[in-house]
Amino acid sequence: MSEKVRVRFAPSPTGPLHIGGVRTALYNYLFAKKHGGTFILRVEDTDQNRYVEGAEAYIAEALDWLRLTPDESPAQGGDYGPYRQSERKSQYAKYAHELVEKGHAYYAFDTSEELTKMRTDQEALGHHSAKYDRRTRSLMRNSLTLSAEESKALIEKNENVIIRLKMPENEVVTFTDIVREDVSFNTDELDDKVILKNDGMPTYHLANIVDDHLMEITHVIRGEEWLSSTAHHVLMYRFFGWQEPKFTHLPLILKPSGKGKLSKRDGAKFGFPVFPLEWQQEEETYAGFREQGYDPKALLNFLVLLGWNPGNDEEVMTKDRMVEMFSLDKIVKSGARFDIDKAKWFNQTYIHKQNVEELLPIAKKVLADNDVSVDDTFLTKYVTLMQERITLYPDFYTEGTFFFHAPAEYDAKQAKKRYTAELDAHFEAIKSIITDGNNEAATLTDNVKSYLNENELKMGVYLPLLRIMMCGSLTGPDLFEIIALLGIEESNQRIDKALVAFKEL
RNA sequence: GGCCCGUUCGUCUAGGGGUUAGGACGCCAGGUUUUCAUCCUGGUAGCACGGGUUCGAAUCCCGUACGGGCUACCA
Known about the structure:
The protein is mainly alpha-helical. The protein has four domains: 6-73 and 209-252, 3-Layer(aba) Sandwich (Rossmann fold); 89-207, Glutamyl-tRNA Synthetase, domain 3 (Alpha-Beta Complex); 268-356, Glutamyl-tRNA Synthetase, domain 2; 358-504, Arc Repressor Mutant, subunit A, CATH 1.10.10. It is built from 20 helices and 13 strands. Strands 3-4-7 form a three-stranded antiparallel β-sheet. The protein has a two-stranded parallel sheet with strand order 1-2. A two-stranded antiparallel ribbon has the order 5-6. Strand 5 and strand 6 (181-186) form a beta hairpin. Helix 1 (19-34) packs across helix 10 (319-325), helix 16 packs antiparallel against helix 20 and helix 18 crosses helix 20 (488-504). The protein is elongated, with a radius of gyration of 32 Å. It binds one RNA strand through strand 6, helix 6, strand 13, helix 11 and helix 18.
């Protein structure tokens, strides 16, 4: 690649960043880093009606959490700013006018009522979803149908004045998409898209290509929903005489089951997040991966493989490795269904691979959120014990609650199966072993096991019972590690308590 | 409806004229673990359909079906 790569992630601040948007950002980021290029965040806030307070901050925070840090952005600036389209408003009109002058665009004055009427009229004639195009524009009020004087007067009145792109007649527009290769559209099928709105703001189509040109974007990597309007974009580049960037349209992320692309409400419906961070809007809370205890690195790893592969069997990759392996031509063409089980597996795998030291502050916070505070020595041992038993970070509490609260109830079925009052004397003996023995799990294991052996007692009876006494059920890490960590006093108390409770079962 | 894009195990995917169609998640079984989980081993399951082209198609072509996107003064 001879020119310096510049790519942008261009979300619209109309709500929280969707997981598909995160993947788009990731691919842009990886491509930029792979080629030593620049990753730009540009906020496309040209629609004031859809602007949502806090959405831009959300996007920035999400990218930060995922460490997808832009090189240029509204927050940090750059040589091609401003990076918020609302702040670039004054620039767009002149480009729209340039297109009018060149005969590639025209003014239109139709009210929304007139537009609706045209569509229903066309519908009556048997034309479904009629467009404002080469066929219908002659029926409407615009600078192509009105006299120059009439148009001028209407433009000066400035009511319902917009600029539309004029689609050429019967031309085949072909562009190359890196994923899909050649894609063609006939201009007769394309509508005259509005490029400058009545409020003076550009629509996406104009703003996007003007900014991409001004910001010297070399590669446009965006969702497949833009594929259909790319012909318009390409035409505009040609009208302006600008070099067009290379296009890559990403397959969409689909619902885990059923029809359509993954949407905002699917999170609640399927019971998993579709947003990186939790988001609240109008009394509704949308779950976030961060809040549910996903590691951002694991999320990224899961996402990178949803629609791309490194060309070999590698799955667990660091971000550096992703950068190294990334290439646009390995992007898959078809949509990918979102599978939360795989996301969980990645998260678990990442937790297993982490150093205990990295996990310490995370576990500490999870425990604190559950009103549990522990000292560092305990925490280190606890995390070491729990690390391989955890899928999501909150499991640091839920998988080990018995460490912090003595069991309130016991697995009656399993206890009854093994317990009789005759066993009490031996549990008293085990208590004294715990009391006498040093506090190492290994020593405890040896001492208790040799006691059982010497007295010809069954391990399969005493050990499960001892576990139920400590944990309430037949789950959890190594029994003697638990006892060692709980300490002599607490362990013995649990035995006493259970011995009483077992008789009631 | 029209235009555009797509279709390999349930899911993510590799493979692009000759492969026992490979890997991963999930699921199932066995082993390890006094338990659960982890871990290890094995198994399960797929080329949407119909026509061509070819000695030979999952792979190339056409059609059909199905899925997706777009069809706003939204992005």
